[in-house]
Amino acid sequence: MQMTDINQRLTLLCIALFQGLALLVLHQSIEQSFWPSYNLPWLFGLYSFTLVTPTILLLALNNKANGMLYAFAMLAGSVALLLGYYTGTQASPFQPQDSYGELIPVLVGTIAIATFKGLMYIQHFTVSGRGEEPTYSRLFKLSWRNFLTFGAALVFMLCFWGILKLWGALFDAIDITFFETLFEQPHFYYPILSLANGVGIVIFRQQSGIIDTLTRIQQALMKFLLVVLIFVSIIFLLSLPFTGLTPLWESGGSLLILWMQAILLFFTNAVYQDDPTQRPYPTAIHRFIYIGLALLPIYSIISAYGLYVRIEQYGWSVDRCWAWLLWSLLTLFSCGYSWSIVSKRDNWLYRLNWINIRMGVVVLGSMLLVNTPILDFRKISAHSQINLLSHDDLVLEEVDFYYLRYNLAKPGYDALNALKAKHPDNLKLTIKIDALFTERGKAAAVEQDTLIATINVLNGELPESLEKPIYDMMVNNVWLFRQLSATYLQPIDLNKDQQTDYLLITGQEGNRIQIYLFYFADDQWKHSSFGRHEGLSKSQIIDDIRHNKMEVKPPVWNILKIGDHELQLRQ
Q: Which Pfam families match (predicted)?
């Protein structure tokens, strides 16, 4: 038996080392530009597989049912690989150095939740209860063991890493740089830190009694806090008839209500996890709590209305899609609990086990589906945002270019290109979209005649000799094109030298408007900038110019010249 335990620990350490070496290979592929770094679907997929499969084995491997456990771990890893592959396809149109928006955080977060939700079912069916229906109490204990074991192992790994950094710094202080240089090399820290994580998991898995004690401690704390939460939720609902819902919407109330529901349900599940015949509270408090829980569907109705209003006004966004998914899950929990309370009253806990086990599968499935074409929030959002536009008479200010470009990955890219194809004669739209995908420091891909045709001359005509200087200035400033909605040119004699200068006004309404001065000096056109102006109303500026509300005002203080330096007093 002792030899079996030693073999199991060695197996776990080998799995941890394998995970570290696999992560090192993927990291080196990015650093040295070999496959799969330039194939983002496979890169995302292999990272997902490498993080999921070994983690499941590290937390669940034991001396029983190992063959079945390996099969489940490989299946889970394969699912993660497919989800990562699909997510990688959503980043394909962009260069590797481009931002992937929220692709990576969402993928990591949802797969992490799905892994920990799926792991407790895997552990039950492979070890605890083959052929037996799982109980919520058992699943709850497994999930907390996994969470606390993994969390404690990460803390152990970080402490180990801190000691290594201290080691390197101490020797570096006496001019021995070998250790600090070694510890900063990927080929060192990937395997060594993965091994440290494996050692931490081995240590804390042997301390399951301590982990269970910590779980009971948090359950005792939540037992008191749940009563306070129920009291707050009931008082809040009783206050709404007197305050109305308007103040709630003005302060982002839908999100707060969802948080209240989520915390209440979490605390309820943490407290009522054992035998339904054993109640952790006296009868009066028990009834007070289930009355508060029975009112949870009211929260769902209130938050549903708030979400509906926002979606009706502004369409679907990724955040609103997530809010809708969270609302759906919380509403299913809330309605299930409310139904149990109404039908069973004091004995409603008998249905808690049935509801929670099935809702756990629903949560697991939801976390998987959001990384598939079936429930891709980026596609839903892009489609919604484009449908909100007035396609017959498109106004550039209606299009949230930055959101489509930087938050929706490939669906945003496809939506912008489709919009450009639908309006081939809208030169400003074409220029603006092309500029969004032009790297900084590179000239925008636009012809001089096309660019000049987008400039609105308020008075007079644009001198032919000024066309190229304006083009040269703008084409090398991608920011101007990304902010482009309308560009105006206004003649002016700013220095009273009887020679016409020109103001070039560009930028988006209310978002960093920039004004340039073009003037003729030394037989050539030159330009200078008045700087960027945050929140300035461009429409008001143009309206004032059209109504001749413009004057040249000399400075109160002249320029002070000391030697070769010129100083101007700010007013």
A: DUF4153
Structure tokens at 281: 């509270």
Four-point Cα dihedral 556, 560, 566, 569, nearest 10: -40
Largest CA distance in the chain: 101
pLDDT, tens digit, 9 for 90 and up, residues 296-352: 999 999 999 889 888 988 899 999 999 999 999 999 999 999 999 988 888 888 888
If one counts every other C-beta atom within 10 angstroms of the C-beta of residue 201, the result is 27
CA distance 143 to 215: 10
- Extract the tokens encoding 386: 């484009």
- Which uninterrupted H or E stretch holds 234? helix 208-243
pLDDT tens string 80-129: 999 999 999 998 666 555 556 678 899 999 999 999 999 999 988 887 55
CA 149 from chain centre, in angstroms, equals 26
Cα-based torsion angle of the residue sequence 87, 93, 98, 99 in order, rounded to the nearest 10 degrees = -40
What is the enclosing helix (H) or strand (E) of 502?
strand 501-508
CA distance 28 to 186: 8
For residue 490, the cross-strand partners are 503
For residue 349, give the nearest of 267, 266, 282, 278 by alpha carbon: 278
CA distance 123 to 28: 34
CA–CA distances in Å: residue 166 to residues 197, 348, 449:
19, 56, 62
Q: Can you tell me the distance from the alpha carbon of 154 to that of 172, in angstroms, rounded to the nearest whole number?
A: 27
What gap in Å lies between CA 428 and CA 162, rounded to an integer?
A: 54
